[in-house]
Amino acid sequence: MRQSFQSVKGMNDVLPDETPIWHYLESCLREITTSYGYSEIRMPIVENTQLFCRSIGEVTDIVEKEMYTFVDKGEDSLTLRPEGTASCVRAGIQHGLLYNQQQRLWYMGPMFRRERPQKGRYRQFYQFGLETFGLKGPDIDAEIIALSARLWKKLGLNEVELQINSLGSNQAREAYKEKLVDYFAQNLDALDEDSQRRLKLNPLRILDTKNPGMKGLVENAPKLLDHLDDESKQHFEGLCHKLDHLGIAYVINPKLVRGLDYYNRTVFEWVTTDLGSQGTICAGGRYDGLVEQLGGQATQGCGFAMGLERIILLLQQQSDLSDKLSTKTDVYLCTLGESAEMAGMQLVEKLRDGLPKLKLQLHCGGGNFKKQLKKADKSSAAIALILGGDEVEQQQITIKTLREKSDQVTIAQSELISRLQQIFAI
Ligand code: ATP
Ligand code: MG
Predict the structure, then answer these.
(1) Which of 79, 152, 399, 423 meets the CB 3.0–4.6 Å disulfide criterion with 157?
(2) In the CATH scheme, what is the code of domain 19-168+228-318?
């Protein structure tokens, strides 16, 4: 029996009719980040497992249960990257890009987390990430938020809400943790199993619970924002002031703690209600301690990551976009007979020299005129060019319109480029 294969659960193919929308999103991201003076960095997909344990935090969903970890030929423990910040910091330290410098970097690529697949949540997914180093903010915090707001505007995504919070300094957070532990300890029965475990290991994570049964409990917990150190308070007020000034609307969400351990001060998420429960399309914040934690000299950091599949899902809801992004063929060349087949290949290459923007498809695989025209029609080309033995001899070409009725015309090949320029206004 023949064996057939399926893609691995939660890991998707992006099919040819979907790639135009991906290209569009990617080019918008490149264009905007370049205009803000950010440079691309590319990191490997696999890193040493310890890099993620040390940065993301041992008691987080990602490290506890979502990482694809394997032992490489009985030696090193390696992991498919679940996110990009740790790798970016590792690369920055390794190549001396961070100490005493300011950097604005971006990256894009697949990440891997072993989660339960559902709409907007996959095991291989794409992130666009942006990291800044050596900038203490809050101006840079506001800049990266303004950059993301510009992207939503360009993409026509209006239903996204900015939520912000401050996690304060590590010290202030430790003091707050004690208050939080007291509060939850008094409500032990209301905690689910995960949260009871977290109470000992990482109580802040309880605020991040997705369990609706604990909503009320979490709602009434002491608020981190009420326990900020003075500097963090000023930082947060500075950010709010800048956002007000830029006209960027935001909601302060005191429960926003983010699923990773390395954040301090500013954290934010862009959330939409158009995707069901997978509503966060961009999330980030400040991680001033991470570079030092990973062995570098103390350097401030601030960045975000976007889940591209979720943004693609939103773009797919825009009905006119796929027409606009169509990569349909403009012109289809049919050749009749051996001499025309040879000459046709030369002709299309010449056309490609002269009209690089034209989407031109050469008929391959032979067949009679009827069959070739059928293919031309299916290609959704606006016109077919027909090259037969006579045309080759006379250095001519016949133009047949496929979408509207008009007589076919035969012209000199030397006039073809200017005629096509006219027809397609290119
Ligand atoms: P969530 O709360 O949705 O699990 P997260 O806090 O784990 O998100 P981050 O690690 O901050 O997410 O990643 C940044 C962004 O990457 C998310 O806001 C989301 O848009 C996207 N993302 C995260 N995990 C997945 C996934 N499994 N599939 C698709 N996109 C994802
Ligand atoms: Mg998650």
Answers:
(1) 152
(2) 3.30.930.10
Separation of CA 278 and ligand 2 centre (Å): 10
- Sheet with 301-307, strands from edge to edge, namely 39-40, 103-112, 124-133, 301-307, 280-286, 264-272, 160-166, 251-252
pLDDT in tens, 239-248: 999 999 999 9
- Which of 80, 127, 313 has most ligand 1 atoms within 8 Å of its beta carbon, as the pocket-test mutant? 127
Eight-state DSSP code of residue 324: H
For the chain, domain boundaries: 19-168+228-318, 331-424
Task: Of 254-268, 296-310, 357-371, give the lowest mean pLDDT range.
Answer: 254-268
Residue 207: CB atoms within 10 Å: 22
Percentage of the chain lying above the pLDDT 90 cut = 77
| Cis peptide preceding 138, ω within 30 of 0 | yes
Best probe residue, ligand 1, of 9, 65, 280, 306 (max atoms within 8 Å of C-beta)? 280
Backbone φ and ψ of 134, nearest 5°: 75, 15
* Number of residues that this document lists for the chain: 426
pTM for the model: 0.91
Domain 331-424, what fold? Rossmann fold (3.40.50)
Question: What separation in Å is there between the alpha carbon of 360 and the centre of ligand 1?
Answer: 40
Contact indicator for 228, 236 with CB cutoff of 8 Å: yes
Kindly list the strands in the beta sheet with 46-48, ordered across the sheet, starting from the edge strand earlier in the chain.
Answer: 46-48, 76-80, 69-72
Q: What is the DSSP letter of 259?
A: S
The CA 66 to ligand 2 mean position distance, Å, reads 9
Residue 259 has pLDDT above 80, yes or no: no
Q: Decide: 121 in ligand 1 pocket, CB within 6 A.
A: yes
